[in-house]
């Protein structure tokens, strides 16, 4: 799978070294940087068991016999297993009743067991064997010879098709409603990790801003962000650095840009702490900003504020996007998704995934509830000139939105 980190790095023209895992990077210069994650606590076994209990309660209500989930964030969420996807299937069977069964390549079994937090039965398969047969046998061993199986929504088609080839006894449905019911609302432990991750990224941006020099390119700055993030105790996920005209491309350009007087510098960065992610964007000008840059920056800042002002319990997630877009149109941008203006949604859910439901986009009717977490990033992009994006993540509370990080004050004080 192409990670968000790899995609963004490639889009911005970053070198392979800047796309590599953050842990392999040398520490950032500067003795003042200290880890902000030393006291961060990973999700406990008890919480993983509570997640399974909630999932099973929902399955019973919906008459679902078992939930199937392969490698990815939902597998980690429910079982603790942190495992990357490949052509080799690692999948958990979570029956409504009975122990979890994990099907995984035989040579990966010891590694998979290292992060399994909920006990259960690990069923290895060898390279010449069919993992679909192991999955079906596991279902039968739990007394599930027919009935409804809910499939986690990101499970790949070849796995579903493989199950059909082995047995036609099951009715496979989407498990999206089950996942949303469990993952949309973050627990106090999850919120604590999201807070730490955002603290790390904001501090990394604060540090890097003081080190920007004329002539630096996007790769130089991305590598500096990554090194600083590691020094602060985070694991870099992505460091998107867009300079000058390239800032008008929301996810980057292959153009090789360098810092010069009057450069727009747009940095969109994130890290993870025990799996939970941050996502922060800041835009500023190297040297003196002109009137147009200031006008656009101030408009985006107001757009960010309008999104948060619109956020209230029970309000549809899409209403925040509608409110921002209406303001931008009054200011002469757009309309809708047209450029110059805002071509992407106002924000996205965040947690174990950098992008997850619900989404701050027109038409998303998900009512806001306490514990939901989102980004707030209504940028403006002017092809051939520059773009501005300000982004902070926030949690919905019973009384309104609470940002994890202070919003940018001004173009001159962006952090």
Explain what you see.
This protein is of the alpha+beta class. Helix content is 34%, strand content 21%. It has helices at 4-11, 16-19, 45-62, 73-79, 109-115, 131-141, 157-166, 176-183, 188-209, 218-231, 291-310, 317-330; strands at residues 66-70, 91-95, 101-105, 121-125, 147-151, 170-174, 235-243, 263-273, 276-277, 280-286, 347-349, 356-360, 373-376, 380-382, 386-388, 392-397, 400-403. The strands form 5 sheets. The chain has a 6-stranded mixed sheet with strand order 4-3-2-1-5-6, with helices on both faces. Strands 7, 8, 9 and 10 form a 4-stranded antiparallel sheet that branches. Strand 3 (101-105), helix 5 and strand 4 form a beta-alpha-beta unit. Helix 6 (131-141) packs across helix 7 and helix 9 (188-209) packs across helix 10. The longest helix is centred in the middle third of the chain and has 22 residues, at 188-209. The two termini are 33 Å apart. 47% of the residues are buried.
């Amino acid at each position: 799978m192409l990670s968000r980190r790899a995609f963004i790095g490639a889009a911005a023209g970053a070198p392979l070294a800047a796309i590599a895992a953050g842990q392999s990077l040398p520490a950032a210069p500067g003795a003042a940087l200290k880890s902000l994650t030393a006291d961060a606590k990973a999700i406990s076994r008890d919480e993983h068991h509570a997640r399974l209990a909630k999932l099973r309660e929902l399955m019973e209500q919906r008459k679902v016999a078992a939930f199937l989930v392969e490698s990815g964030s939902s597998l980690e969420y429910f079982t603790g297993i942190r495992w990357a996807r490949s052509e080799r299937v690692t999948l958990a069977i979570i029956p409504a009743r009975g122990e979890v069964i994990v099907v995984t390549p035989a040579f990966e079994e010891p590694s998979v067991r290292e992060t399994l937090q909920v006990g259960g039965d690990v069923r290895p398969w060898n390279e010449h064997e069919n993992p679909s047969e192991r999955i079906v046998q596991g279902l039968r061993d739990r007394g599930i010879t027919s009935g409804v199986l809910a499939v986690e929504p990101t499970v790949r088609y070849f796995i579903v098709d493989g199950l059909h080839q082995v047995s036609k006894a099951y009715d496979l449905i989407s498990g999206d409603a089950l996942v949303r019911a469990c993952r949309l609302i973050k627990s106090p432990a999850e919120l604590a990790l999201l807070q730490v991750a955002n603290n790390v990224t904001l501090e990394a941006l604060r540090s890097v801003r003081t080190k920007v020099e004329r002539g630096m390119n996007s790769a130089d700055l991305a590598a500096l962000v990554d090194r600083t993030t590691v020094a602060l105790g985070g694991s870099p996920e992505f460091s998107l650095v867009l300079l000058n005209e390239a800032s008008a491309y929301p996810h980057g350009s292959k153009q090789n840009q360098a810092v010069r007087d009057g450069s727009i510098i747009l940095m969109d960065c994130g890290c993870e702490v025990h799996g939970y992610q941050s996502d922060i964007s800041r835009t500023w000008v190297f040297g003196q900003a002109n009137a147009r840059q200031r006008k656009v920056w101030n408009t985006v800042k107001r757009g960010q504020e309008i999104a948060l002002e619109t956020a209230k319990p029970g309000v549809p997630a899409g209403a925040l996007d509608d409110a921002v877009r209406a303001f931008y149109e009054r200011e002469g941008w757009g309309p809708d998704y047209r450029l110059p203006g805002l071509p992407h949604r106002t924000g996205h859910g965040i947690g174990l995934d950098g992008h997850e439901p619900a989404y701050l986009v027109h038409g998303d009717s998900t009512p806001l509830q306490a514990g939901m977490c989102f980004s707030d990033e209504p940028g403006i992009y002017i092809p051939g000139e520059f773009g501005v994006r300000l982004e902070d993540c926030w949690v919905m509370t019973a009384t309104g939105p609470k940002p994890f990080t202070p919003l940018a004050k001004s173009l001159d004080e962006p952090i």
